[in-house]
Structure formats: structure tokens, C-alpha cells
């Protein structure tokens, strides 16, 4: 067995076996001077106060002395685009001198620029490029990450991306949850016949992705000049028929009806929601859709328009925060940075942020029974952070707090190693 001792705070997030809402989002289940036992199967055997746990530690057990650090569940990053070729540092510079994200997209850059680079890459190239980012997620304390396709936009290139995700899952300790995002943009060769692209997604891509079990979820970028509400509905209904869970990029750049559509389809999540109004929030609530808020993209696009997190929490929504890591709108893999933005710009308390980044995020990916809290039976995905108090994670920003990261009870990253 593995024993973790000498934690200033063991932040367990233990509680009801469902996403946390309202005041529950501020209850972290903190055990002061806590300790934890992990079995040989990589699962948590027991958590408790040090004086209860220490007598159970045997001579053969490996002991991790947390050195008066905090220990918490690994972050679950429930919205990310971590597989792509190339970067868009040139567009970043263009935006710095005044171009907007939408102007760059309309001129053929943006997502379509990453599509050209990703199509030119082999599966091996993609795996190699993406492993660099795997390391970044781990060193930030993330143990599970969603991985969307959406930079291939042809049958072969979408399959190539999803196969790369499958390999990353097998070849790295990070846990990837694959999402098919063939409807991320209309590719160059279909600009004059967009209806044909939608048919390609529905008739060829979705059946293949489902048949090869390459994705658990389907996502659509529902936005003015990308996919309309009606187009998004058709694609998501087809995905549902293939038993994929539904996610949706909704109301990011305009109030385009995405949240309402997510509610109508009882999607698992509606993501972004910068422009969602009170009626949209009410619709998400009545349909039980989890909002996934992505303040990194608001920040990196230089916008002031953060989503209405407080109204969503007050409405009883099980809020999630995530990085949206991607080469365009949000080039950060750092969940601690997202926690900082959640508190400074969305007025979430540090505790609400942590709940949104762990247990609520895990439920939004269908992993709530497996990870996202430190409770007996769950996979031992946890992280030692160099803080004495959990609030420091969001408060000290721009530094890396993670000291050591464990996935399934095995060391996945240690600072300085
Ligand atoms: O979530 N909004 C659409 N998709 C991504 C951006 C992807 C990109 O720019 O490459 C997002 O912001
Ligand atoms: Fe996104």
C-alpha cells in the first residue's frame, strides 16, 4: 500500500455522489492534518485524520510525506483541444495590433489555419506534438483531460486525430476523454456547399467514429458564421442516435441560441456561455445541463465579457471550469490560472472554483464515480501542491504550485525530477 501523510489540508471533496450545486460548491470536505491510504490496485482505500491512518501503515508500505503541503484531487479539465499541429503565434501578434478573432477566421485563418497544419501532419507527428502538452497538463496538476478532435474536418483527418488521442491515452499517464468535434468549422473545400459538409459529418464521420468507439461525446461549435442552431441540432441528434453524449460550444461570441439548444437536447454540457442570458440559464437548469465556463479564452481574446458564473451558481447549476486549451483562443493548459480568473473575473470563491475544477468536472465527463474527489474506491488521482492553504492556489498566480502528481496511485510528475 501507499500512504500519504503530513498534509496541512487533505481536500477530499467528499460528498453526495452527484455534481455539487449551490452552497455545496463551497464544501470541500477538508481534513486538517489529513492522511490517505492507497491500495495496490491504485484505488483509494481510506482517508482520514493522521492519527487514525498512521497506525494502519505497515513496514512494507511506501510512505509519501507531503511535507506540510496541501493534497487535493487531480484537476479534471473538461473542455480542451489538446491535439493539433503547429501554433498560431502569428495570429496572437495580429490580435495584439488590433485584429479580432472573428476577422482572422473570416480571412481564412483561425481554426482553418490549424486544420491545414493538422492535415499535413501524420498521426505520429500529432502524437509527438501533443505529448509536449501532456507534460504541461501534468505539471499543472491535471490528471484527466477532455480531448476534442476538430482540426481534421475530413473523415480521414478526424479519425487520425481521434486515433492520436487513443495513443496518448495508452502512452502517457494522463487520462484523456475523447470528443468528436467534426463540426468545429466548415473546411475550405466545403465553403461553397456547407450543406454537403453537414451530410458528411452525419452520414460518414459519426457512424465511423461510433463504430470504432473513438469518442464518448460529440460537440458542435454553434455560432454565427459557424454552425447555426438548426445545423447543430441535426448533427447532435445524429450523434445521440449513435449513443454519444452531447456537448456544445454555445453563446461564446454572441447570443446565438446555443444554451437553449443544449437544454432542448438535454446535452451533458453547454460550454463557454459568455453571452447567455437569464432565460438561457433557466433553460439549462430545467434540463439539468452542466455549464462549462472557460475564462482562459475570454482573457486570451482580450475580451471583458466573462460568463455569469454567480447567476449560474445561484440558479443551482453544477458549474464546471476548464482551460479550453487550444492554439487559438486559449493557449493555456493551466487549471491554477483558470482558478485565478474564476475568482478575479467571475467572482467564484476559491472553494467554488475547486469544486468546479474537480468533482463537477468529473461528472461532466462521465467520470464522477472514478475521479474528482478523494474517497474510498476511487482511482487515486491526486496532487501535492506547494501551498499551506487551498486558497493560495488561485491567489498566487503565474507560478506552478504542483509538487507531485499521482494518477492511479503512480507518480506521473514530480517537480525537479
Ligand atoms: O473553444 N470556439 C471554438 N473553438 C475553440 C477555439 C479553437 C481555435 O481557435 O482553434 C474555443 O474557443
Ligand atoms: Fe473550445
What would your notes on this structure say?
It is a single chain. The chain is of the alpha/beta class and 417 residues long. Helices cover 36% and strands 21% of the residues. It contains 16 helices and 17 strands. The strands form 3 sheets. Strands 1, 2, 3, 4, 5, 15, 16 and 17 form an 8-stranded mixed β-sheet that branches. Strand 9, helix 8 (229-241) and strand 10 (245-246) form a beta-alpha-beta unit. Helix 5 (123-139) packs across helix 6 (155-171), helix 6 (155-171) packs parallel to helix 7 (194-211) and helix 13 crosses helix 14 (350-357). The longest helix is centred in the middle third of the chain and has 18 residues, at 194-211. It starts with a strand and ends with a strand. The model has no long low-confidence stretch (mean pLDDT 98). Fe (iii) ion (FE) binds at residues 79, 81, 249, 324, 326.
Helix content: 25-40%
**CA-based shape:** globular
Distance between the termini: 23 Å
- Which structural class should the secondary elements be placed in? alpha/beta
pLDDT averaged over residues: 98
Instruction: Describe the largest sheet.
Output: 8 strands, mixed
* pLDDT < 50 runs, ≥5 residues: none
What ligand molecules are bound, each kind once?
N-(iminomethyl)-L-glutamic acid, fe (iii) ion
What is the count of helical runs?
16
Strand content: 15-25%
How many beta-strand elements?
Answer: 17
Question: What gyration radius follows from the Cα positions, in whole Å?
Answer: 21 Å
